[in-house]
Hints:
Layout: H1 8-15, E1 21-22, H2 28-32, E2 38-39, H3 45-54, H4 56-73
Parallel strand pairs: 1-2
Amino acid sequence: SRHEGMPMALLEAGAQAAPVLATPVGAIPDVLAGGRGFLADRDQFSDRLAQVIADPEAALEAGRRLHAHILAHHG
């Protein structure tokens, strides 16, 4: 979306250790900082998605980092 505060879908994905690719709006960049996810603006989104899919280990590691962050800060 173009405008977000703290999207519940991001927190739910993190609770499940799912890798996340999102646009950098609202609080999303703060939550995904430090390798906890992937950001791309809408013009780069499909290219970034292809990169994430091409490196499943990095995607899984980002999901694990996001999971730990969600448990520690958004439980």
